[in-house]
Amino acid sequence: MNRNKLKYTAGLLLLLWFYNACNVPNLSRTSALKPIPMSYGNTNDSINSATIKWRAFFKDPYLVTLIDSALINNQELNIILQEIKIARNEIKARKGEYLPFVSGNAGTGLDKVGRYTSRGANDANTDVMPGKAFPEPLGDYLISAKASWELDIWKKLRNAKKSAVYKFLATEDGKNFMVTNLVSEIARAYYELRALDNQLIILNSNIDIQKNALEIVKLEKISAKVTELAVKKFEAEVLKNQSRVYYIQQSIVETENRINFLLGRFPQPVLRDTTQFIDIVPDSILSGLPAQLLSNRPDIRQSEMNLMASKIDVKVARANFFPSLKLTTGIGYQAFNPKFLLSSPESMLYNIAGDLIAPLVNRNAIKANYMSANSKQIQSLYNYEQTILKAYIEVVNQLSNISNLNKSYELKVKQVQALTQSIDISTILFRSARADYMEVLMTQRDALDSRFELIDTKLQQMTATVQIYTALGGGWR
Questions:
Q1: Domain-by-domain residue ranges, the chain?
Q2: Quick check: 237 and 445 in contact, CB under 8 A?
Q3: Which candidate, 98, 198, 105, places its Cα nearest to that of 157?
Q4: Fold of the CATH domain 103-151+324-357
Q5: 25-98+154-322+365-471 CATH pick, 1.10.460.10, 2.40.110.10, 1.50.10.100, 1.20.1600.10
Q6: What is the pTM of this model?
Q7: Same CATH fold, 103-151+324-357 and 25-98+154-322+365-471?
Q8: For residues 326 and 149, is the Cβ–Cβ distance under 8 A?
């Protein structure tokens, strides 16, 4: 009867396990990925400028030197490099989980039991060897090796290792994306620094022109052609621009230190090209095909690797519903006296066992982990789609920006030329009493503003060139 009950209980447990193993929750599947457009509007380039290495793209030797230093010393980049090492170690850890674990053990000890106990009485009446009883206290010497191995029946451990590999690849692409942004940020700050230098040169030159105009107005006052009001107006304009010099100098210091921070160094002067910033001609950019973003953009590849890892994590979580089989074995020698320790087979010991562990009741934790893994997979899919969408829009925006900036720059050049000529014309007319001092003053002010706007437009052109290069996936090679 007891044997029948045992068979009935074992059968019931087996049936319950089979039901639980088969009754895995069916979660909703996500829709297919949205297709990426075939082109960027009217552009049909097949060549992509993102494949150009950043050393070839940036031709300024000072800028190249700054980027080289940042790639070695930037703290944030070095932090990411340590993350890569951590991810690589995680692969080794996951790989080791589906290999046998072997450990060695050596120990010694003494054991004394009371004589008037069942064991003590038994030991007193038992001879180990003819004429010899158990020693008191009883020694215990052991040398053994143990091994355990979980059989990866459902590929749970191997899938965990694959997931770790994809996460490692994601950290590699994350590092490349960081490099891309670092190169872009240094380039933009460098061009901003050169633009500020150019603005300072123009402002100082304009101050000299205004000082000459001030002297002319003073002479005109002596001859009673103008009043003291004109003199004060010109003097105030000179003082305003002299004060403006210090604002530009402060911006130069802050921009230099922004570069120094990216280079991981304390404040110091930044070496740079001192020639005219306005003479720089931006490189022409070939956008290629949108599909090339999938291989060129590190952030898209990072999202893709995270998506692959999340898919495998679902398989790992699903495998937890099924039983795991673990084998354990051991072999060694054990004796109460060291001289008997290596006696074979008397002192030899060994064991082997297999454990089949399966969830039967209360699987809420396993279900929760499985559902969370599935939600993370869906989350990774949306993130992947969003990253592609963001990349595509960035490229389209910058292509439009470059086109509009080129047209705007051409008009700005003509504006500067016209206002520069008007300064001389207004001065001549003022001397011949055919124009008042306010016309001269406003002409000088408009000419200065137009030259500043021209530099700002050139800076926007150079920034847009860097940003489209980054948006296409360049800068990390």
A1: 25-98+154-322+365-471, 103-151+324-357
A2: yes
A3: 98
A4: Outer membrane efflux proteins (OEP) (2.20.200)
A5: 1.20.1600.10
A6: 0.83
A7: no
A8: yes
Structural tokens at position 334: 């054990």
Give, for all 477 residues of the chain, the pLDDT tens digit: 456 655 555 555 555 555 555 555 555 555 566 788 888 877 667 788 889 999 999 999 999 999 999 999 999 999 988 989 898 898 888 888 778 888 888 888 887 777 778 777 776 666 555 555 667 777 888 898 988 888 777 788 888 888 889 999 999 999 999 999 999 999 999 999 999 999 999 999 889 988 888 888 888 788 877 788 888 888 898 899 999 999 999 999 999 999 999 999 999 999 999 888 888 888 888 888 888 888 999 999 999 999 999 999 998 888 888 888 888 898 988 888 788 788 888 888 888 887 777 776 667 888 888 899 999 999 999 999 999 999 999 999 999 999 999 999 999 999 989 988 888 888 788 777 777 778 888 888 888 888 999 999 999 999 999 999 999 998 888
DSSP 472: T
Residue 386: alpha-carbon gap to chain centroid: 16
Q: How many residues does the chain have?
A: 477
The b/e string for 72-81 (b: 16+ C-beta within 10 A; e otherwise) is eebeebeebe
Task: Characterize 90-119 residue by residue with b for buried, 16 or more Cβ atoms within 10 angstroms of its Cβ, and e for exposed.
Answer: bbeebeeebeeeeeeeeeeeeeebeeeeee
**Amino acid in the structure at residue 46:** S
